[in-house]
Write a structure and sequence with these properties.
The chain is mainly alpha-helical. Helix content is about 55%, strand content about 5%. The longest helix has 30 residues. The structure holds adenosine-5'-tetraphosphate.
Length: about 325
């Protein structure tokens, strides 16, 4: 085995300003692996173009997402932080794995169905093969563990199936990855429609709380969050809105759901929503300060990007060479 540490890989699309869903479901968990694992955290810009993007905004958000990784505590000296399109192995392996992924499997992906419904005028082939590129992202680094939100479970299962299929045909080639889905806050729901996932590309600003929203905006958004006609802060049937706010509060404060029910017993939604907003803003303020500091130093961000890409690209060489040989490609000529 050439790996001296187990490997963690995860990515976030720069397809909008990140939400507390992205933070609680994914990024806030990344740091805990940095000491004991070889960690690759990628800004997956190639995934983002499956939906039409404004090029200047995509570029800006790519820098922002990298800066947010660092502002959330990811030290570039301990984690490989990089941009997907800077490492050509992702596209290369993505194509090869397309040829080992079945049309029917991709057609069953719920994200494809949701995103095709949302982008009916642009149901492109990339949207369809998105999960294969994600499998390539993961398998390229012989990843053991993938920290993601619950919405990515189906894609992760597919990545495992593809790895096992490839290994079945050619012998052991890829590590079959496991998911790491947090127990709490694995799926933060929209504040406007609490049966729908909170998504950074949601056009309704009141549905999402963004990591970079100022305190007054955060407080206002929580104040307006959809609940129900009752007044009790507790879980239960028809209480999706309240339960979502409870899990956000729980994730930001570390309190259990039972403790939260006791804390707000008889106090009504007004008090509760204000407390959720305060807890969220308190957690995000230092991240925002660090983000602003990092964004003011573009040269440093570019240095991190370049170093991350160099390390990541180097680490893909062995797997790519093995895969190319196994599928029957001839030796790469030197040119
Ligand atoms: N609402 C959520 N709750 C918990 N985790 C979430 N994640 C996303 N939304 C929630 C997790 O964030 C990571 C990065 O997601 P992504 O950018 O790769 O794509 P996504 O899952 O499609 O996220 P969005 O915010 O919904 O983006 P758009 O609107 O562009 O499609 C993943 O680990 C994801 O599970």
């Amino acid at each position: 085995m050439y790996k001296d540490k187990k490997v963690v890989f995860s990515g976030v699309q720069p397809s909008g300003t990140l939400t507390i869903g992205n933070y609680l479901g994914a990024i806030s968990n990344f740091k805990k692996f940095s000491d004991d694992y070889r960690c690759y955290y990628c800004v997956v810009d190639m995934h983002a173009i499956t939906v039409r993007q404004n090029p200047a905004e995509l570029r800006r958000r790519t820098y922002e997402t990298l800066a947010l990784y660092m502002a959330c505590g990811l030290d570039p000296a301990k984690n490989v932080l990089f941009v997907q399109s800077h490492v050509s192995g992702h596209a290369e392996l993505g194509w090869i794995l397309d040829c080992y992924t079945m049309f029917g499997e991709l057609g069953r992906m719920t994200q494809f169905k949701d995103k095709s419904a949302k982008n009916a005028d642009n149901i492109n082939a990339g949207l369809f093969t998105y999960p294969t590129l994600m499998a390539a992202d993961i398998l390229l680094y012989q990843t053991d563990l993938v920290p993601v939100g619950a919405d990515q479970k189906q894609h992760l299962e597919l990545a495992r199936d593809i790895a096992m299929r490839f290994n079945g045909i050619y012998g052991d080639t890829f590590v079959v990855p496991e998911g790491y889905i947090p127990q709490n806050a694995a799926k933060i729901m929209s504040l406007a429609e609490p049966t729908k996932k909170m998504s950074k590309s949601d056009e309704n600003e009141n549905a999402v709380v963004r990591i970079l929203d100022p305190r007054d905006v955060i407080l206002r958004k929580f104040k307006r969050a959809v609940t129900d006609s009752g007044s009790e802060v507790r879980r239960g049937e028809g209480k999706d809105g309240v339960e979502n706010l409870m899990s956000i509060y729980s994730a930001f404060t570390g309190k259990t759901m039972d403790e939260i029910e006791r804390e707000f017993d008889g106090r009504g939604y007004g008090d509760f929503k204000a407390a959720v907003g305060e807890a969220c803003a308190d957690k995000l303020t230092p991240i925002q300060d660090e983000f602003n500091r990092l964004m003011a130093d573009k040269a440093y961000l570019e240095k991190v990007m370049a170093e991350g890409a160099r390390e990541a690209a180097h680490d893909t060489l062995r797997t790519m060479s093995k895969v190319r040989r196994k599928v029957g490609f001839t030796e790469m000529p030197r040119y």
